[in-house]
Amino acid sequence: MMNGVLVREGGLEGADARLLRSGDKGIIRVNSNIRELGRRRFAMAHELGHWQLHQGVSQYWDCTEQDMVNYSGSTIEVEANTFASELLMPSRLFRPACRKADPSIAILRTLAVEFSTSLTSTAVRYVEDSKESCMASRFTKVLFF
């Protein structure tokens, strides 16, 4: 249990993770069918973002894979994604790691392993923090210019 919220893995239909809050207690359920550790960790961290940032907004969050990937969605989802990204890939550690090598898929894979994050969330964070001209699509295609 962390800050009053308990995390459990289990079956979920149509969602990567779900947060149910009752006052200062809550349960985050992460879809046990997600095979990739980095994706499970991001789903959990995303719901923790809702827990910490949005207690007055809703008592129930049901986040799909699209909510996790869509950084241009609703403000609330963007905030939860940003929280998750900073929790899993803290700027003070991630930015220097980005500068260890020239931009490439190989550096993204290395960073994903180092931070135990998905390639997608690592690519998005890299694009946000990089001084290089690059972009990531929701299909995890990373282009370097």
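[next item in queue]
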Amino acid sequence: MSTFRTLDDLDVKGKRVLVRVDLNVPMKDGKVTDDLRISRSLPTLHELSRKGAKVIVISHFGRPDGKPKPEMSLRPVSAVLATALGHGVRFAEDCIGPKAQDIVDALKPGDVALLENTRFHAEEEANDPGMAKAMAAFGDYYVNDAFSCAHRAHVSTEALAHLLPAVVGRNMEVELKHLQAALEKPERPVAALIGGAKVSTKLALLGNLIARVDRLIIGGGMANTFLFAQGREVGKSLCERDLAGTARDILAKAAVKGCTIALPDDVVVAHEFRAGAPCKVVPNDRVAADQMILDIGPVAAARLGTLLSDCRTLVWNGPLGAFETPPFDVGTVTVARTAAALTASGRLLSVAGGGDTVAALRHAGVADEFSYVSTAGGAFLEWLEGKELPGVKALEVA
């Protein structure tokens, strides 16, 4: 299990500390619509400020393709960050160069500054040594608190860790602790619940998990492909029929590894996909040609609840059905609440993240009741796939 230095290893009083956070938050009409990533950055920023550091916050926002774009400026986010922190945040109109230098030079112990979108420079995504050196000149220490960006080898996520004494922030520290507990040294039995639309996007993920977990629950459109591979007709359901052979290979490999794969016993079907559409529950081998599977049924939900009650660790990625469109949210909500109850009773370590997972758990009202819910999308998936994350690797203690 990898080890990392943390804020506890730094004496930051009077020092300049570059802190990489993830402020790539949803915006609409110039306003932040979901501040979860901002709130996750607060413990680190509060602690550094309280200890007398000169805090220099860096982040990307959107995909400006290496050029300044006003609509992707972090300036509106700086105001939200200031409100969340409870004190002023100085904003620099660049992340390198004289505009940033002036703001950094004016900082006093306890002050916080936010530098402009790092992706306004093409060198950021190229992991350019020159840009890294220019940015590193602003700091005495580097803190990475953005696990959600750790799968990218960019200047602000990887290169800086090699130029300054580097540690993990409190958010990343908690995230790595839970991820390591979930798959590196988990309490068994371990279950992984993997939902989503397509098997093709999660082949590496499924291949890695069948070697590491005891129970693999497959839901969403992916389950339809596996049911079809077992000879079930799935009607008009989302299904990658050309991957039936791949699905059968995964089932066979899971059997060899001793990993039990759970598919829905019964399913909710409808003739059309819309909110409030007439629907019914049928066994998984009774789907008519003009029907589509849009959720798991109550028997499947109950069986998954029993399965989870026998497990000690759960990794959740993706919904079990089309949860955004009632009534096809019932399966996801039911199983999510069961997992939350088991977590609350101390019987289950539950870690969730990636894709629509946070939205699905919020919809079920249990996002705060899991052991940990990651705001990471791609990084969470790549970690589940067993890939090395450059932003994490750069922080490991040799």
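[queue empty]
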